[in-house]
Amino acid sequence: MILSVQSRLARPLSLLAFAALPLAAQQPFDRTHAPVLAEAPALTVPAVRTVRLANGPALNIVEHRELPLVQVTLTIAGGGRLDRDLPGLATFAANLLDEGAGTRDANALQSELAFLGASLSTNATWDVTAISLKVAKRNLEAALDLMADVVLRPTFASAEVRRQRELRLASLLQAKDQPAALAGLALNQALFPAGHPYHNSLGGDSVSTTRLDSATVRAYYEGSVRPERATFYIVGDLGAAEAQRLLGARFGRWASKGPERRPAPVLVQPVKPTGLQVILVDKPGAAQSIIGIGAPGVERTSADLAAIEVMNTIFGGSFSSRLNTVLRETKGYTYGANSGFTYRPLPGPFSASSAVRTNVTDSSLVEFFREMRAIRDAAVSDEELARAKAYIALGIPGDLETTSQIAGEMASLANWNLPLTWLQDYVGRVNKVTAADVQRVAKSFVPAENAFVIVVGDLARIRPTIDALNLGPVTVRSVSEIAR
Fold this sequence. Notes:
Number of domains: 2
Strand order of the largest sheet: 1-2-6-3-5-4
């Protein structure tokens, strides 16, 4: 108690002592200039050791001994690209994996996870189905038993499938009233023709969802959740030998069931618009307009990736970007504006978007295209360039702080067969980007002249002013056409 009283007294005394110092001894802080940052240290990524189970799956292991925690992430290649004629099937099946497994129903499974202090999640992206477990080391074995049930012995009970189907149908109905969701769907449908996996929402639509039943989900599971497609990422208080023993005991006899499900061939590249093509979606009475401007982007394996990301950070990929500064801070049209590239095995879209007040929809479009032309037509300033490079390079270490983040980075990079050490090379390439590089990639990938311009809003109020801009041919689509 005496020590705590002394420590409480020490702080105000030290503050008083500082205040009593002569003014000359106090270092003034110039608030008119940003502080100078020291040169960032070289990025060092954790070492990864890879071993395999006897039946094939690789275990990529990072020892992270700071805390007695273990993260186990399993990815199974495939994901939404396997949906074929049932959009949303992959995500629906993934969501059902932990809704009853082994001898436990959903409630019993969640109760045991909670008792162990473990978190387990299941999901699917366009590229993979993922099951992630995080737990204290002392409870790892019991938690891995539950994870093995989820991966190898899901029940797909008919009652649970019906419940999840009704929940998804309700969610899809809600999406019809969400302008941002409609804008995203409209852009996907413009860029990717019917029959292309990316034409649809990853979550599917009401027509495909009504066709989902227990037999359909189980057939998909048996054809896609297979050991030859599986990779484990283990990060935490665990060595390679112990990881191999624990995972091998639970997944070492995992064998495929049924014929393998393969994606339908996708030979069609994204549609490249000629000129500006305006697509309007009517939402009567909307207080805001959702603006989305999009065009085919670029593959993540592009040699220009570093320059592209630096350029986009300056243009619309950060809070201090040009788009956000103009539309939010200078004009006050919106709470935020952004841009970005979506990376997929085929070039995903580049898009720039914002939710703006209805009465400034046309003015906002003018600002979007003014900024698009500006970053293409003139070199960025030295200050913008330095800030953008620091934003990217200094942000990467923060993505490698926790066991979950490290496992997530490894799994994400694996989609392009890239090792974790790729991040080190990437930071080096970011730091070498020049203003000329930024302008060059902006001219190639910022679609100031050829893009789909999506606007979701109250057409009775916004269409006359949009027509007056003469951006290009206008198509009007209904909500029911876009969201089934």
